[in-house]
């Protein structure tokens, strides 16, 4: 028996299990004619507020929408989103700082996906960890609020790079916090050249129509991205 | 900080591969890591040692090969290595480009094992769950 270690080539993705599951989810969503959007941001950027408005308005437009919302501990976000009357499910992650494909799959157990046109997945507020996990979504939207500072994309390039669209939120506060809007656009384009960026305020409704039109057009086209 | 769960996945994967190949002991695990994987090298190394405790991989070494982000420059019509992930532009001509060729790697490349394990013994991964 040899005691000298030998090098054995393995070559496998460490997150293979998640990626396989995400692919299956994406196929399941496609089979059900469902468009899936995930939202990522730092804590407090306004994901839940925007999502509540989004669900309410899309329902008014006759869209069948639902949401999964990830959080470390409370069910507060699900309670807020439920005010939109749309089906909402909370995923409590415990100490885990991100959602993964398995959590998404398990939380869909009781839902008939054919009854939805569009599903939103609100990730845990975190600009680092969610970037590693494919959830099977068709579109990943990253939010940054004007109160966070315009160089956020430069500090967290990976999450911006894995996202498809960026939203600049809380635009109603831009002037008060002397937000450098051109600088923010420049930072985003630096880490993700060509990225589509929308500006809005969920509170005042500024830019909300454009955002909703964008979501609805993507929903209708079901332009899947090969993540 | 999700490096601990990533470390657990690496240990599981390495252990499973070692078992399949009849390895009795894993001495080292070679990993390829890209900047766009969302995983931090130092945090992963720290987590790995912690996660290995009480597992068959206790005492093994994690060897990380950091690879750069490579983008395709449509102007130069070649692959180019990015200087900074804060600026996705061609280092030669300065053209901005979103076309990532590589840099997302989080890949278990190889393991260093000594022989003597029983190929027929199914890998017992319950240690991983216990450690979590």
Description:
The complex is a heterodimer of chains A (227) and B (132). Chain A has a 7-stranded parallel β-sheet, with helices on both faces. Chain A has helices at 16-31, 47-60, 76-82, 101-107, 152-155, 157-162, 181-191, 208-221, and strands spanning 6-13, 35-40, 65-71, 88-92, 118-122, 139-145, 165-169, 196-199. Chain A has one domain: P-loop containing nucleotide triphosphate hydrolases (Rossmann fold, 3-Layer(aba) Sandwich), CATH 3.40.50.300. Chain A starts with 5 loop residues before the first strand and ends in a 6-residue tail after the last helix. Chain A has 227 residues and is of the alpha/beta class. Chain A has 8 helices and 8 strands. Chain B has 132 residues and is an alpha+beta fold. Chain B has one domain: hypothetical protein PF0899 fold (2-Layer Sandwich), CATH 3.30.2320. Chain B is 27% helix and 29% strand. Chain B has a 3-stranded mixed β-sheet with strand order 2-1-6, with helices on one face. In chain B, strands 4-3-5 form a 3-stranded antiparallel β-sheet, with no helix packed on it. The longest helix of chain B has 18 residues, at 3-20. The chains are: A alpha/beta (227), B alpha+beta (132). Chain A binds chain B through residues 1-17, 96-98, 128-132, 154, 157-159, 161-162, 189-195, and chain B through 1-2, 5-6, 9-10, 13-14, 17-18, 21, 23, 27-28, 30-31, 35-39, 85-89, 96-98, 100, 106-116. Strand 1 of chain A pairs antiparallel with strand 6 of chain B.
Task: Please sum up the structure shown.
Chain A has about 230 residues and is an alpha/beta fold. Chain A has eight helices and eight strands. In chain B, a hairpin with a 4-residue loop joins strand 3 and strand 4.
What is the tally of beta strands of chain B? 6
The CATH top-level class label of chain A: Alpha Beta
- Overall, the morphology of chain A is globular
How many β-strands of chain A, per DSSP?
8
- State the domain count of chain A: 1
Architecture (CATH level 2) name of chain B: 2-Layer Sandwich
Mean pLDDT of chain B: 89
What is the number of helical segments of chain B per DSSP (H or I, 4+ residues)? Answer: 3
Q: Could you give the distance between the termini of chain B?
A: 14 Å
Largest sheet of chain B: 3 strands, mixed
What's the CATH class of chain B, please? Alpha Beta
Question: Which H/E pattern describes the elements of chain A?
Answer: EHEHEHEHEEHHEHEH
Number of domains of chain B: 1
Major sheet: arrangement of strands of chain A = 4-3-5-2-6-7-8
Question: Over all CA atoms, what is the radius of gyration of chain A?
Answer: 19 Å
Name given to the CATH architecture of chain A = 3-Layer(aba) Sandwich
Report how far apart the termini of chain A are.
45 Å
């Amino acid at each position: 028996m040899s005691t000298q270690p030998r090098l054995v080539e393995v070559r496998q993705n460490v997150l293979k299990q998640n990626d396989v599951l995400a692919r299956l989810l994406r196929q399941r969503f496609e089979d059900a004619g469902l468009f899936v959007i995930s939202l990522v941001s730092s804590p407090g950027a306004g994901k839940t507020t925007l999502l509540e408005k989004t669900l309410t308005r899309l329902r008014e437009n006759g869209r069948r929408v639902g949401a999964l919302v990830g959080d470390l501990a409370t069910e507060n976000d699900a309670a807020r989103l439920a005010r939109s009357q749309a089906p909402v499910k909370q995923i409590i992650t415990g100490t885990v700082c991100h959602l993964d494909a398995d959590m998404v799959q398990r939380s869909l157990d009781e839902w008939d996906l054919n009854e939805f046109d569009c599903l939103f997945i609100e990730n845990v507020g975190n600009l680092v960890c969610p970037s590693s996990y494919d959830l099977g979504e068709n579109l990943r939207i990253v939010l940054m609020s004007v109160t966070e500072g315009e160089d956020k994309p430069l500090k967290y390039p990976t999450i911006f790079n894995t996202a498809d669209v960026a939203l600049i939120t809380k635009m109603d506060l831009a002037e008060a916090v002397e937000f450098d809007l051109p600088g923010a656009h420049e930072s985003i384009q630096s880490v993700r050249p060509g990225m589509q960026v929308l500006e809005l305020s969920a509170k005042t409704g500024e830019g909300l129509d454009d955002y909703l039109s964008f979501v609805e057009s993507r929903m209708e086209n079901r332009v899947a991205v090969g993540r | 900080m999700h490096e601990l769960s990533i470390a657990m996945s690496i240990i599981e994967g390495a252990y499973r591969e070692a078992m399949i190949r009849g390895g009795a002991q894993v001495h080292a695990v070679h990993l390829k890591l890209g900047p766009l994987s969302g995983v931090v090298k130092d945090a992963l190394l720290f987590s790995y040692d912690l996660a290995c405790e009480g597992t068959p991989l206790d005492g093994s070494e994690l060897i990380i090969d950091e690879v750069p982000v490579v983008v395709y420059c449509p102007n130069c019509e070649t692959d180019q290595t990015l200087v900074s992930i804060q600026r996705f532009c061609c280092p030669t001509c300065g053209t901005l480009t979103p076309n990532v060729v590589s840099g997302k790697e989080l890949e278990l490349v190889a393991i260093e094992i000594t022989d003597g394990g029983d190929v027929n013994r199914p890998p017992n991964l319950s240690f991983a769950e216990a450690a979590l």
